[in-house]
Amino acid sequence: MAVYLIFWDGVGYGKVDPETNPFFAARLPALSTLCGDNLFSLRHTRVSTPLATVSSVNATLGVAGLPQSGTGQTALFAGVNAAKIVGRHFGPYPYSTLVPIIKEKNIFKRLRHIGARVRFANGFPDRYIDYLSAHPSKMPVVALAFASVNGGLHTHDDIRSGSAISADIIGSRWKELGHAGIEAVQPESAGHTFHELGSKCDFILFEYFITDKAGHAQNMTAAVEALERADRFIDGLLTRFDFARDTLVLISDHGNIEDLSVKTHTRNPVPLIVAGKRKDELTRAVRTLTGLTPAVTAIIASDLAR
């Protein structure tokens, strides 16, 4: 069994309103395949189909104010209520006192400890890796977590060889970033790569930040494009996905793109979408952001023990 986790930043439940919620202005056939005709919204917070379940996850962590990526992602990928530890929501990067917690308790380390094979699918350009080396406090949570167990991040060479995926899925800007040898790909092709990489692991994670970026821009055209690109990526994965053997998880850290009437994050719940073998177990186990890491660790541990 493999667990494929897609983390799309800034995706919450919104109103059924194509004027403000791009989920209802975009064409999303892959999500429709999973979720059926009633796409998740504040009107339909729970969806169940033969292929997948969608359930509501509280992203506020019991703390006042707007959820932020630093504390939200620490909760997701280290399993601790980072906002309560810090005393507020904080982001986009992890608060300094959270860094040792992330390094010690992150999902990659927990899974490695039980003998699981893990992978962070994203690859990064040299200039970004150099920037992180010079500004370690600016390292995002997932990158920090993986680098702490892998010794570093995947690079442009990994993108070129097909062993990593561009953070924007299609790799449209690699020539601008100084890597002329990397050609752009179709989102479905990147989805195929994600499946291939995951077939060699017990757990693989892909992080997609474009959704949060589009939400902050309050740009419907960009938001629709970001969602449709993600949907085509999911479609590429699903064409090769084994629903009887593997598990697909989509989750976010906070709301944003679902309400383009505001520039900020929202306090809306985020959808947990789970398809495949262990969908019922994960749906029951994950009620808040802190539940994801222990739940995924538990199901992989149970499979490895068989």
Q: Could you explain the architecture of this structure?
A:
The chain is α/β, with parallel strands linked by helices and 306 residues long. It is 39% helix and 14% strand. The protein has 13 helices and 10 strands. It has helices spanning 29-35, 69-78, 82-86, 99-105, 107-113, 126-134, 141-150, 156-161, 187-198, 210-217, 220-238, 279-285, 292-304; strands at 3-8, 47-48, 52-57, 118-120, 122-124, 154-155, 165-166, 203-208, 247-251, 270-276. The strands form 2 sheets. The chain has a 7-stranded mixed sheet, sandwiched between helices. The longest helix is centred in the last third of the chain and has 19 residues, at 220-238. The chain is globular and about 45 Å long.
Supply Rg.
18 Å
In helices, the fraction of residues equals: 25-40%
Sheet having the most strands: 7 strands, mixed
The shape, in one word, is globular
Annotation, overall tally of beta strands: 10
**How far is the N terminus from the C terminus?**
11 Å
Strand fraction equals 5-15%
Order of helices and strands: EHEEHHHHEEHHEHEHEHHEEHH
Note the total helix count. Answer: 13
Mean pLDDT: 96
Low-confidence parts, pLDDT < 50 over ≥5 residues?
none
Major sheet strand order: 2-3-10-9-1-8-4
Structural class: alpha/beta
Layout of SSEs?
Elements: E1 3-8, H1 29-35, E2 47-48, E3 52-57, H2 69-78, H3 82-86, H4 99-105, H5 107-113, E4 118-120, E5 122-124, H6 126-134, H7 141-150, E6 154-155, H8 156-161, E7 165-166, H9 187-198, E8 203-208, H10 210-217, H11 220-238, E9 247-251, E10 270-276, H12 279-285, H13 292-304
